Amino acid sequence: MTELLNKESFLEKVFNYEKNKEWKYEGDVPCIIDFYADWCGPCKMVAPILEQLSEDYEGKLKVYKIDTEVEQELAAAFAIRSIPSMLFCPMDEAPQMAQGALPKPQLEKIIKDFLKVEK
Predict the structure, then answer these.
(1) pLDDT score for 90
(2) N or C: less crowded end of the chain, CB within 10 Å?
(3) pLDDT digits 0-9 by tens, 48-78
(4) Which pLDDT value is given to residue 114?
(5) Three-state DSSP class for residue 11
(6) pLDDT-derived band of residue 91, with 50, 70 and 90 as boundaries?
């Protein structure tokens, strides 16, 4: 299941940017963070794919969603200019951002190659 994050849960589960200057991922498994808005058409296309991926990789990968309309401070902290934007957070490396509605095969490749998660 994808999980909706607000600022408080983001600081706790992903990265506490108020406490740490350097990136320090707080999670116990890699994650994908989907920055989206309810009115965004491409975001709606990606949502069921991310839901499916969260089920396919349950226990090995977390999929979080951040509503950029509600969580404007988080969107600003990551300089989100277009949506959907996805932040890929591996365990021991810096995260990478991708923009646009990525197709499922491309997301699966990123999960395998960058996040180093196998089904």
Answers:
(1) 98
(2) N
(3) 999 999 999 999 999 999 999 999 999 999 9
(4) 97
(5) helix
(6) very high
**Distance, CA of 116 to CA of 109 (rounded, Å):** 9
**Neighbour tally for 116: CB within 10 Å:** 12
Tokens, residue 73: 């401070």
Q: Which residues have CB under 8 Å from 59's CB, separation 6+?
A: 29
CATH of the domain at 13: 3.40.30.10
Number of domains in the chain: 1
Beta pairing partners, 64 = 3, 33
Residue 87 lies in a domain: yes
Whether residue 101 has pLDDT greater than 90: yes
The answer to whether position 118 is within a domain reads no
Give the position of tokens 């991926």.
Answer: 53
Per the structure block, which two tokens stand in for 32?
């994908």
Distance CA 46, CA 68 (A): 15
Q: Which residues are catalytic?
A: 40, 43
